[in-house]
Amino acid sequence: MTAPLTPVLEVRGLKKHFPVRKGVLGRQVAKVHAVDGISFSIRAGETLGLVGESGCGKSTAGKLILKLTEPTAGEIHLDGARIDQLSRHDMRPYRQDLQVVFQDPYSSLNPRMRARDIVAEPLRNFQRLADTEVKTRVAELFAQVGLRPDQMVRFPHEFSGGQRQRLVIARALALKPKVIVCDEPVSALDVSVQAQVINLLADLQRDFGVAYLFIAHDLAVVEQISHRVAVMYLGRIVELADKRALFAGPQHPYTEALLSAVPVPDPTVKPKRIILQGDVPSPINPPSGCHFHTRCPYAEARCRVETPPMREVAPGHFAACHLRPGPVVE
Ligand code: SF4
């Protein structure tokens, strides 16, 4: 599932299994298969949307890429350099290239720091710029994210939710990163503010060529900003394609069901909603074969025993379903 041009971020067979321990000796009795072998790549200036229901492993995938948690297996390559095995110290030169925007801007900002110092902090820590250079760069960043110069002296609680997210974006951009992991960056915001923040992210990408891994549960939001979309279910990517191809013709039954729940703005169109049976199974003991077989309306006998490999079902369109033929990919 490699993008045609050299990727700036590449993930191969990434896994994160958390041990479940019991008893006074803390014996491991099971594993949570949070991320169970995902592969994808992102090019410079591209946005890959990573979607799925709550608990599917998408946020853990983001944390693995940011090296906030260590993978159980797999590889992460940032601009050609393998980073998954690097220690905290050896990771430092790469930190500048890899930034994050979290869902809740308030909890990711130090409430005791003024806005200008929040944005200046990474410049001081990583680039050791002179005070005048830091001042100039902070002023530029404020302008780039649409904040006013007089807001520099304010504290985080004096900003609205949307303005706080702009502040977080300014801080993430300060070191001119190659990749920003955006983990549900607009889901805590009002709908009108969501659109402003998405437009801002798109404008900044056009101007600076930064790549985004855009993690969200809301397909409508992902559709607005992504170039390609990967759909996750119980720790695995089940479909990955160009946004238009995926929304126009989903190839995996799970994607089909997710898309059928997206509201259609045209009142004359009556969408055929696919209601999935049951809840998402536990990642502690995921179903055998195709993880989705317990809820899939098309499941066959082999789906319970054989894990469907990822196949290229159309050029650049990948799906992991026994009903979709195509060459198997890594
Ligand atoms: Fe459904 Fe079988 Fe395809 Fe899985 S492999 S999505 S259970 S048809």
Beta-strand content:
15-25%
Biggest sheet features: 8 strands, mixed
Structural class: alpha/beta
Tell me the number of helical segments per DSSP (H or I, 4 or more residues long): 9
Task: Quickly name the level 1 CATH class of the largest domain.
Answer: Alpha Beta
Task: Count structural domains.
Answer: 2
Bound ligands, named by name, code or SMILES: iron/sulfur cluster
| N-to-C CA distance | 7 Å
Tertiary shape: globular
Helix content: 25-40%
Q: Note the run of SSEs as H and E.
A: EEEHEEHEHHHEHEHEEHHEE
Average of pLDDT: 92
* Superfamily (CATH H level) name of the largest domain: P-loop containing nucleotide triphosphate hydrolases
Q: For the CA atoms, what is the radius of gyration?
A: 21 Å
CATH architecture descriptor of the largest domain: 3-Layer(aba) Sandwich
Q: What's the number of extended β-strand segments?
A: 12
As residue ranges, the low-confidence spans are none
Write the layout of secondary structure elements.
Blueprint lengths: L6 E16 L4 E17 L3 E5 L6 H8 L7 E6 L2 E2 L5 H8 L2 E4 L13 H13 L3 H14 L16 H13 L5 E5 L7 H18 L2 E6 L2 H7 L2 E6 L2 E7 H6 L4 H8 L50 E4 L2 E3 L11
Helix pairs in contact: 3-4, 3-5, 4-5, 5-6
Keywords:
single chain; 330 residues; alpha/beta; 2 domains; eight-stranded mixed β-sheet; 9 helices; globular; binds iron/sulfur cluster
Notes on the protein architecture:
With 330 residues, the chain is of the alpha/beta class. It has two domains: 7-97 and 177-319, P-loop containing nucleotide triphosphate hydrolases (Rossmann fold, 3-Layer(aba) Sandwich), CATH 3.40.50.300; 106-176, no CATH class. It is built from nine helices and twelve strands. The protein has helices at 58-65, 88-95, 115-127, 131-144, 161-173, 191-208, 219-225, 243-248, 253-260; strands at 7-22, 27-43, 47-51, 73-78, 81-82, 98-101, 179-183, 211-216, 228-233, 236-242, 311-314, 317-319. The strands form two sheets. An eight-stranded mixed β-sheet has the order 6-7-8-3-9-10-12-11, with helices on both faces. A hairpin with a 2-residue loop joins strand 9 and strand 10 (236-242). Helix 3 runs parallel beside helix 5. The mean pLDDT is 92. Iron/sulfur cluster is lined by residues 252-253, 290, 292-293, 296, 298-300, 303, 308, 321-323.
